[in-house]
Design a protein that fits this description.
The chain is of the alpha/beta class. The chain contains 10 helices and 5 strands. Strands 2-3-4-1-5 form a 5-stranded parallel sheet.
């Protein structure tokens, strides 16, 4: 690539604007052909750089979010289970609950789309420049257990407690064994009224306490989690149908 000015590249790199080099040649040609004013040409280059930086930030947030899939709301089949409350889902997609710093609790039988919807909300949140982390309840507890064993518990706990949106999938699939129940309580208590959390579960809301061996601790945890929370119940058939031969 031939730049209009040979010494422009090192100066752009020094200013951390080397991304401009990617579109400089084509934009320069465009400016010459269209007889653009210098300010219009500069505006194009700056706009390209802003777009590149926004894309890099988005890609970085997506990697940090650790979604299991790229499922979005457009891919969700509302007609398959018409009893599903679409208005609640669309409300959650506005990410208003993140600003309100409350939880969104999604329950329903296996295969009704809990993880799909949770991750779709997470994708929208990333687009709105929120930091998001997706994990299963089992993986979350294991990460805290491993962090304690490796003497990095406080650092890991801080990351989990401060992320804008923490998505915990499959809560209650396995009972919480001490000290996991205490870790879960501490995390929910630390995030309470400070950050938003999504929790999905196959268990009905009245059964969540069964996941805690210490019923008093469970009650204290769930009291914080459920306070002012948005609730979504997915009822219907499983999307995971066997292939017909």
């Amino acid at each position: 690539m031939q730049n209009p000015k040979p010494d422009l590249a090192p100066m752009l790199k020094q200013l951390r604007l080397s991304g401009i080099l990617d579109s400089l040649e084509s934009r320069n040609r465009q400016a010459i052909d269209a007889k653009m004013a210098y300010t219009d040409f500069l505006s194009l280059l700056v706009s390209d750089e802003v777009t590149r930086r926004d894309q890099r930030k988005f890609d970085f947030r997506m990697r940090k979010a650790a979604f299991r899939s790229n499922k979005t709301l457009d891919q969700f089949d509302f007609d398959f289970n018409p009893k599903i409350n679409a208005s609640v889902i669309h409300d959650l997609m506005t990410c208003r609950f993140i600003n309100e710093k409350v939880a969104a609790l999604i329950v329903g039988p296996c295969g009704t789309g809990k993880s799909h919807i949770a991750q779709a909300i997470g994708h929208i949140a990333v687009k709105q420049n929120y930091d998001v982390l997706f994990t299963t309840a089992a993986k979350l507890m294991h990460s805290l257990y491993a962090a304690r064993a490796n003497d990095v518990y406080e650092r890991r706990f801080k990351i989990l407690s401060q992320v804008d949106l923490l998505i915990i999938d499959d809560f209650g699939l396995k009972p919480l064994v001490a000290p996991a129940d205490e870790d879960f309580h501490d995390l929910i208590a630390e995030r309470y009224e400070r950050s938003a959390t999504i929790v999905t579960s196959n268990l009905g809301f009245t059964e969540w306490g069964n996941a805690f061996p210490n019923k008093l601790l469970g009650a204290a945890t769930l009291d914080r989690l459920k306070h002012a929370a948005y609730r979504l119940i997915l009822d219907g058939k499983s999307y995971r149908r066997p292939r017909e031969i």
